[in-house]
Design brief:
Layout: H1 3-17, H2 37-45, E1 50-53, E2 56-59, H3 64-84, E3 87-90, E4 96-99, E5 102-104, E6 108-112, E7 133-137, H4 144-157, E8 161-166, E9 171-175, E10 181-184, E11 189-191, E12 200-202, H5 203-208
Parallel strand pairs: 7-8
Antiparallel strand pairs: 1-2, 1-5, 3-6, 4-5, 6-7, 8-9, 9-10, 11-12
Length: about 220
């Protein structure tokens, strides 16, 4: 095998390991496998939203409608948590070192006070925190293998529940562990259960955000 063929084979294996994502989402500077948390912070400060996976900067797909749903969930959770003081909620900018070589930024994350060092807001730019709840809003371009890998990482790290929000199907898959899950639709309500006790939102209300129009719209 010549050197070019070897590089191509290595890249192919790398993309498969990352969940069959396209090469365009892998930053090649610094070289895959050598990126650090500092590289991640520099990259994200320049406007590209990436996560750090095994020393690789992987671009996180962004989307306006998906951001709308994530922000609505954050708004609801923040109001709920301000009243109940169970912990904190963060968005995709809130990068966390969930495993030794994995820095992830869930679209929405709830972290209970007991999982925050000293029960306080951390000062580290990338704190070593495992959220109780991680929410990912699926974008066109997210692969099944990519999201399956994320779920495995989350549960291996100690996340208690994962919500996969599909705005196209208007469903939420609630994962209680790697294999046990239930799919909810707009006839259901999304509840926090033991992870976020007392929290509840109708999925009709959640996905209804996508249907809002201006009072003057025809």
């Amino acid at each position: 095998m010549n050197s070019n063929a070897g590089v191509a084979a290595n890249l192919s294996d790398l993309l498969i390991d990352l969940g069959n994502i396209p090469l365009s989402r892998v930053r090649t500077e610094p070289s895959p496998g050598t990126a650090t948390e500092e590289d991640l912070l520099v990259c994200n400060s320049n406007g590209t939203r990436c996560e750090l996976v095994d020393g690789i900067l992987v671009e996180k797909i962004m989307g306006w409608r998906e951001s709308l749903i994530a922000c609505f969930l954050i708004e609801l959770m923040r109001c709920f948590l301000r009243s109940n003081n169970l912990g904190l909620v963060t968005g995709p900018d809130g990068m966390m070192r969930i495993l030794k070589s994995q820095v992830r930024g869930p679209d929405v994350a709830f972290v209970s006070w007991g999982r925050l060092p000293g029960g306080k807001v951390p000062t580290d730019r990338v704190p070593e925190i495992v959220p109780d709840l991680a929410v990912e809003v699926l974008r066109d371009g997210n692969t099944y293998a990519e999201m399956a890998r994320k779920r495995r990482e989350y549960f291996h790290a100690g996340v208690r529940q994962v919500w996969m929000v599909d705005i196209n199907q208007r469903t939420v898959a609630v994962y209680h562990d790697i294999t046990k899950y239930e799919v909810l639709n707009e006839t259901h309500s999304l509840v926090g259960g033991d992870v976020l006790p007392g929290f509840e939102v109708s999925l009709a209300e959640l996905f209804g955000e996508l249907d809002r129009t201006s009072p003057t719209a025809s």
